[in-house]
Design goal:
Layout: E1 21-24, H1 34-46, E2 66-71, H2 85-94, E3 99-104, H3 112-126, E4 130-134, H4 143-156, E5 161-165, E6 180-187, H5 188-191, E7 208-213, H6 220-230, E8 234-237, H7 255-262
Parallel strand pairs: 1-2, 1-8, 2-3, 3-4, 4-5, 5-6, 6-7, 7-8
């Protein structure tokens, strides 16, 4: 069981003991996935987000399960405001959800100006609370350019919540560039044998996110145990398979069970 390896601090279980939360990497367009967006709204209304400016904590004794939702209109914000995404995102904002605009860094190949332009559109049209930097580089050589981008994004939106989507453990220096890092994104068959980088033990669990597809219902509890042991604070698990990048577009078959295991009082 590789995920049980002992880190430099002598034990990861205590670090990962904080309640987990849900990070939604991006459902399909509201027109194509009305059920998914309705479930996001239900979850948002039931439990307020934590950690954001102006966000009230959830009711006493309940866990604030929804940490953030990624908005990806059309490979980013699209060319113009979307008539379906506008009301859907407005409802989520009013319910207290934290919206993150999707910016694809293309592993460092995307021009800086294009990314900033997309960020402006997300802010102007959808009033996002921050950004999800997908396909974020992991190498030390691209760290300075990534920091340039995150510094600019914070200047565009005071208090912006930034999540860097590396998909694996990056160079430790990236931990100072964002609020959260996605240190695993991939298949369950890889996740169940994954190992945590020792440098992550120096940070609280809330700094790391795990996104896993192809998780069977019978292994959901094991997946949650791995996440806690490895020190993740935000997770998204689904039994959907990644056919052309569509694993995140629809609800997991066990959505209610998944959410109820993370935050009480959500599923009916």
């Amino acid at each position: 069981m590789p995920y049980l390896t002992t880190p430099v601090d002598g034990g990861r279980a205590a670090t990962g003991a904080a309640p987990l939360g849900v990070g939604v990497p991006g459902f399909a367009h509201p027109l194509m996935a009305p059920t998914e967006w309705a479930e996001l709204l239900r979850l948002s209304r039931g439990l307020a987000c934590t950690g954001g400016a102006g966000r009230a904590p959830g009711p006493q004794g309940t866990a604030a399960a929804l940490h953030w939702v990624v908005l990806n209109v059309a490979r980013g914000p699209g060319a113009r405001p979307d008539p379906y995404c506008l009301p859907a995102t407005a409802q989520l904002r009013d319910a207290g959800a934290r919206l993150l605009g999707h910016l694809d860094l293309e592993h460092g190949a995307r021009p800086f100006g294009e990314l900033v332009s997309d960020a402006h559109r997300f802010l102007d049209w959808y009033k996002v609370d921050g950004f999800y930097l997908d396909s974020c580089p992991t190498e030390r050589t691209q760290l300075s350019e990534t920091r340039r981008l995150t510094t600019t994004l914070r200047a565009l939106r005071d208090g912006a919540h930034l999540v860097t989507g590396h998909g694996r453990h990056p160079h430790p220096g990236y931990a100072d560039a964002a609020d959260q890092l996605v240190t695993f994104a991939g298949r369950w068959s890889d996740y169940r044998w994954s190992q945590v980088a020792e440098w992550t033990a120096e940070y609280p669990a809330g700094r790391f996110c795990h996104l896993v597809h192809g998780v069977p219902r019978t292994h959901l509890e094991e997946a949650l145990r791995i996440a806690r042991w490895q020190g993740a604070g935000t997770v998204y698990f689904t039994d959907r398979l990644d056919h052309g990048g569509g694993a995140w577009e629809s609800l997991p078959g066990y959505w209610d069970e998944f959410v109820s295991r993370i935050g009480p009082g959500v599923s009916e």
